[in-house]
Design a protein that fits this description.
318 residues; 5-stranded mixed β-sheet; 38% helix; 19% strand
């Protein structure tokens, strides 16, 4: 039995999964990501995990036949080299595939791609985008981005860096601008991602605005998007404002991508789905206020959940 490994690298945690030839998940493990590690140290630990999963494959009567890796940033897919990874900046420019082949003796192929590309591939083949010719996959969590299936194919762009739509710039006032790790201020990622909205909330609190959030979270430094969602449900004015800002800029972001590509199936995934209708209902309502061409657009949610990145990474090998 051939086994394939999918690895979903994240800014705070990384997931490892072992699959059979029919992409059935056989084993899985999630470990924290250490942003302080150099590329060699970070992927040295990844190599150790690959070795462990190779042993697990043998224990199941199989052989590890390849490893697919998704990372949250720009990737030169053909060379297996990561470009800029805003959430893990010490990995910038690291030749992942060559390093791992050297560590593991070149026993099997190793493919590296953007995590949004991996998620798009998974949802298109096995999830909410099955049967569609065109699909946009939009993970909304710590950061936001887009994986694009166009005419039945994953679109990577000229350098493998397509889909970083969260870093498109919005026309916003100076008081709304906060720096993003992409190097710009005023991109959509800095206005409506899970990480960014916490920064906006802390700035509003520092300016003297009242909120139950510090008490709810046990301190300003502990506030997360989950606390903002909970405070919004309780009617807290600052939290309601935060969710409203997210909905507003998410609607603009998705509408701009839609107008560029005219893709009528948009699949959302990620931790911000937990905000439900108070975020996505408002976002869809504003999207429709801009949407005047008369063609229907279907908004869907992931069918593969948190495993979409893992499944997509392993699917790179098929």
């Amino acid at each position: 039995m051939k086994c394939y490994m999918g690895i979903d690298i994240g800014g705070t945690k990384s997931a490892y999964g072992l699959f059979d030839e029919k992409m059935r998940l056989l084993d899985k493990e999630t470990l924290p990501s250490d942003e302080a590690l150099s590329g060699e140290a970070f992927f040295g630990s990844v190599a150790e995990q690959i070795g462990k999963f190779a042993d697990r494959a043998e224990a199941l009567g199989g052989t590890l036949a390849g490893v697919g890796i998704g990372v949250p940033g720009f990737v030169d897919f053909d060379r297996g080299v990561v470009g800029r990874i805003p959430s893990l900046p010490k990995l910038d420019g690291f030749a992942v595939a060559d390093f791992l082949r050297g560590r593991l003796g070149g026993k099997f192929p190793i493919l590296v791609d953007n995590d949004g590309h991996c998620g798009a591939l998974a949802e298109y083949r096995q999830g909410a985008g099955r049967g569609r010719r065109n699909m946009l996959y939009c993970p909304v969590s710590t950061g936001i981005s887009t994986g694009m299936i166009l005419d039945g194919k994953l679109f990577r762009g000229s350098n493998g860096a397509s889909g970083e739509s969260g870093h498109m710039l919005a026309a916003v006032s100076g008081e709304e601008r906060i720096p993003c790790m992409c190097g710009n201020s005023g991109c959509f990622n800095s206005l409506c991602s899970g990480k960014a909205i916490v920064s906006h909330v802390r700035r509003w609190l520092a300016a003297g605005e009242e909120s139950i959030l510090p008490k709810l979270a046990g301190g300003e430094e502990k506030i997360t998007a989950r606390h903002i969602s909970e405070a919004c449900e309780k009617g807290d004015a600052l939290a309601v404002r935060a969710v409203g800002q997210m909905a507003h800029y998410m609607a603009m972001w998705i509408f701009n991508v839609y107008m560029l590509l005219n893709v009528d199936c948009i699949v959302f995934s990620g931790g911000l789905l937990a905000m439900g209708e108070k975020l996505f209902g408002k976002m869809r309502e504003e999207f429709e206020s801009y949407h005047t061409n008369g063609f229907p657009v279907e908004f869907k949610f992931t069918e593969l959940g948190e495993d979409s990145g893992l499944i997509g990474a392993a699917s790179l090998l098929l």
